[in-house]
Specification:
430 residues, 2 domains, Urease, subunit C, domain 1, 22 strands, 6-stranded mixed beta sheet, 5-stranded mixed beta sheet, alpha/beta, TIM Barrel
């Protein structure tokens, strides 16, 4: 039978009301013993989240919770901005499980993408709400697809900046050691000279947010690490990327590889195993951020047989500790990125622990993983800080990571874009 007009009107109003309520994002009133805003640790602060942004942050006596807001409060906790992983490879996993060449050559892109979705979730659950993923290492532009799936809410994961295939000089990169009559897929895209313009533009067109270049690699006469691209080639890469508004970053471990990359205009140096005070000052002069990736160096040394604290340190670790100390002395800006993928995703804090172990202050390491990385990646108007107008990327950990950096492992709450992805033991009430 036809519904009476009054009943129909009420039904439509009720349906509309329920839809509006279902779609309306919640507001949150969050307090903790300590709140690190990306630069300074505060006590007695509160944060209000409305929709996907931070609506207010400051002393509790000035920040009152909105009516109906979900209140979150935990004893003995610290609230920090969503952490930013500066150097990841979501399409790789520890080499002591499966070596790099086998992952690149024998695992299909679909299999590696399936793994990457799990790695993305593990990264987010560890409190890292943003990651700069610097190359799929043979999986093409699968990172662009994973980034899209995260943005569309299909899978959970961090906000991603992706590099796609990365660029290497012809003949320099692996996998190697196969019959030259065979065509062996490389872990990155080879290009040289004038062709670099086309390759950079092609990578941009296929979704790369950042152009990554290998400024040196182990292709010397005896497998030693030597520079790859000339200074002019590197300048061509940088200028082509910059014309599209994109940065160039460089894998560089040798002094000459770093020097060329810095003079060419790259924005970050990755690894920098042989950085010294002089190079650090050059990087500082050119506003280049340094990502030491000490966790990857230690992981590889351990895969090769080193037992930390039980067997003598290999030369690679002795050199890494020396270079890290000299980088600190130079005053170069230090970012946080562990080359995670070489070691397990979700263990990202390992890099931060080692940065402290190697001589960096814990609070400075916290800055490196938040506000410093945000500035280095041109995201400082979006993430990396707790202040009004920023994206609501917030993480609560038990303890005080400014005193004990490992407290960042005790994540009890993760919010990205105002959506709660993890909540353990937090008191939520209205």
């Amino acid at each position: 039978m036809p519904m009476k007009s009054s009943s129909l009107a009420f039904f439509l109003f009720l349906s509309w009301s329920l839809t509006v309520v279902a779609q309306r994002p919640a507001s949150y009133y969050i307090t903790a013993d300590r709140i690190f805003d990306g630069e300074v640790m505060h006590e007695g602060w509160a944060v209000i989240v409305e929709h996907d942004k931070i609506a207010a942050a400051g002393p509790k006596e000035k920040i009152k919770g909105p009516v109906g807001a979900i209140r979150i409060s935990n004893a003995n906790t610290t609230l920090v901005p969503g952490l930013i992983e500066g150097h990841s490879h979501l399409f790789l996993y520890p080499y002591n499980i499966t070596d790099w060449s086998t992952q690149v050559l024998k695992e299909s892109d679909s299999y590696r993408t399936a793994r990457a979705t799990v790695h993305a979730k593990n990264t987010l659950m560890a409190g890292f709400t943003t990651t700069r993923d610097l190359g799929t290492e043979g999986a093409g532009y699968s990172d662009v697809a994973v980034k899209r799936a995260i943005e569309e809410g299909i899978i959970p994961g961090p906000r991603m900046l992706v590099a796609g295939r990365a660029i290497v000089a012809t003949g320099s990169y692996g996998p190697k050691g196969y019959d030259t009559d065979m065509h062996i897929m490389s872990g990155a895209e080879a290009a040289d000279g004038p062709d670099l313009v086309r390759v950079v533009r092609d990578q941009i067109g296929k979704g790369a947010d950042v152009i990554k270049v290998y400024a040196d690699y182990g292709w010397g006469p005896h497998g030693d690490i030597q520079p790859t691209f000339s200074l002019e080639e590197l300048k061509t890469i940088v200028e082509t990327a910059r014309s599209s508004g994109r940065p160039t970053v460089a894998h560089a471990t040798t002094r000459e590889g770093m020097r060329r990359a810095v003079l060419a205009g790259v924005e970050t140096i990755e690894h920098g195993d042989l950085i010294d005070v002089e190079l650090g000052k050059l990087m500082k002069e050119h506003k280049v951020t340094y990502f030491p990736t000490v966790a990857a160096s230690e992981a590889i040394a351990q895969y090769d047989g080193w037992v930390k604290d039980k067997t003598p340190e290999p030369q690679s670790i002795i050199d890494k500790k020396k270079s890290f100390k000299e980088a600190l002395q130079s005053g170069v800006t230090m970012g946080m990125g562990g080359d995670v993928g070489v070691f397990a995703h979700g263990e990202n804090v390992r890099e931060m622990e080692l940065m402290v172990e190697y001589g960096m202050n814990a609070l400075e390491v916290l800055k490196a993983a938040t506000s410093v990385n945000a500035r280095a990646f041109h995201l400082d108007g979006l993430v990396g800080s707790i202040k009004e107008g920023m994206k609501a990327d917030l993480v609560i950990v038990t303890g005080n990571p400014a005193v004990t950096i490992s407290d960042l492992r005790m994540v009890v709450f993760v919010m990205k874009n105002g959506v709660v992805y993890k909540q353990e033991g937090a008191a939520l009430d209205k």
